Amino acid sequence: MKMYQQAIRLQERKRGFHLVTQEILKGLPNLSEIKSGLCQVFIQHTSASLTINENADPTVRKDFEMYFNKTVPENDPEYMHDYEGSDDMPAHLKAALLGSSVLIPITNGKLALGTWQGIYLCEHRDRGGPRSIVITAWGE
């Protein structure tokens, strides 16, 4: 069994849903050595998340942002955790809903994503800063 792990830093992005598939792939140059296995991509933050979804039409990413902003609004007077700004507690809730990692099969040295699938960085803060990612791939 082969195992590779790499930490990468994604550049700061504005709030929204951003395709980062190519950056993830650059972070694991040894991926081609694994014929069958798994790749976990993990974000080390509580106000951003990862998900897999549509990689072609950018309106999907805009609709994701609209939906989550309506579902988890800012400035709710019942939020107790509000000292880091009005976007902070909603960012934590959105990250909890979407999750901190994705697990993707590896087939013949490539991520087995579907034709229209890509990895999203879901940035839930107005100014979240650079984001730290740990990528782990293992298999035969």
Please give a structural write-up.
With 140 residues, this protein is α+β, with helices and mostly antiparallel strands. It has a single domain (2-75, 83-139), classed as Jelly Rolls (Sandwich). The chain is built from three helices and eight strands; from the N terminus they run ββαββααββββ. The strands form two sheets. It has a five-stranded antiparallel beta sheet, with no helix packed on it. The radius of gyration is 16 Å and the shape is elongated. The relative contact order is 0.38.
Average pLDDT number = 97
Reading off the top of the CATH hierarchy, the class is best stated as Mainly Beta
Q: Report how far apart the termini are.
A: 5 Å
Q: CATH homologous superfamily, by name?
A: YjbQ-like
CATH architecture: Sandwich
- Return Rg in Å: 16 Å
The parts where pLDDT drops under 50 for at least 5 residues are: none
Range of helix content: 10-25%
Explain briefly what this protein structure is.
The protein has helices at 21-26, 58-71, 88-98, and strands at residues 2-10, 16-19, 36-43, 48-54, 101-107, 110-111, 117-123, 131-139. It is of the alpha+beta class and 140 residues long. The chain has a five-stranded antiparallel beta sheet, with no helix packed on it. It has a three-stranded antiparallel beta sheet with strand order 2-7-4.
